Amino acid sequence: MKTYQKLCTEFYDLEQHPHGEQALAFYMEQARKADGPILEPMCGSGRFLIPMLKAGFDVEGFDASPFMLDSLRKKYAQISSNVAPVSQQFVQDFTSERRYQLIFIPYGSFGLITNYEDIKKSLLVLQHYLLPGGKCFFEIETVASVLQPCGVWRRGVNSRSDGSKIALSFITSYDQQTQLFQSFSRYELLEHDIVQETEEETFQQYLYRFDELDELLRDSGFMHIKKYSAFEPTQAATPLTPIVVYECEAVCD
């Protein structure tokens, strides 16, 4: 995996997501409603999984990035002597001996699966592991979410507890035909404003047309499909909604 490496993971952990508290409250509520085991694919460094574990939910996760998982395991070790219930897997290749009452993928992470065949396979895998009557949530970014203007450099800096900093410089592009949003990113570890370490990555994300995922979900065996603006179930999504939450169920056995 060529993204979500060491400095990227640390920058991610230091970054305050603009909808972080609202998103956590939303998914914690779904966890409370679930009467059974919970799975978070693409769980990253544990922004949702760690609070759910602290709350006593039967939850586990997986991610493709060893750096993200290493960060998660270190956080979990601070609150438990048990082994963190996570594994390193890709969604399309996921296997488990369990099935789940709730499966959720927040923060548009599902868009990181950019190959069309992998997208279809991933949906079939998730549908297979969802218990009858269980719910699956996908939070996606749409073509209306493209950061404008593209083609200009942006920069962000986050401070570590020791006073050093991690800086991110990035430039974006968007291809309307392939619906791929791309960001070339450069991370720098700065000590007294002197660069000590660098890391570069090209980040790609597939952005969905308004009704595009509806058809894919139905073809994969999902039903009772709802979609609304992020974290607002009473606010229906429109073609101009940048972040959409899908709520759906698996076809009963």
Structure description:
This protein is α/β, with parallel strands linked by helices and 253 residues long. The chain is 25% helix and 35% strand. It starts with 5 loop residues before the first helix and ends with a strand. The model has no long low-confidence stretch (mean pLDDT 95).
Most strands sheet: 7 strands, mixed
Topology as H/E string?
Answer: HHEHEHEEHEEEEEHEE
What is the CA–CA distance across the termini?
35 Å
Shape: globular
> What's the number of extended β-strand segments?
11
Strand order of the largest sheet: 3-2-1-4-5-11-10
Name of the CATH class of the largest domain: Alpha Beta
Total domain modules:
2
Radius of gyration from the alpha-carbon trace, in angstroms: 18 Å
Q: What is the count of helical runs?
A: 6
**CATH superfamily heading of the largest domain:** Vaccinia Virus protein VP39
Based on the model shown, name its key terms.
253 residues; alpha/beta; Rossmann fold; 2 domains; seven-stranded mixed beta sheet; four-stranded antiparallel beta sheet; 6 helices; 25% helix; globular
Write the layout of secondary structure elements.
Elements: H1 6-14, H2 20-33, E1 38-41, H3 49-54, E2 59-63, H4 66-77, E3 86-88, E4 100-105, H5 116-128, E5 130-141, E6 153-159, E7 165-175, E8 180-191, E9 194-206, H6 212-219, E10 222-229, E11 243-250
Parallel strand pairs: 1-2, 1-4, 2-3, 4-5
Antiparallel strand pairs: 5-11, 6-7, 7-8, 8-9, 10-11
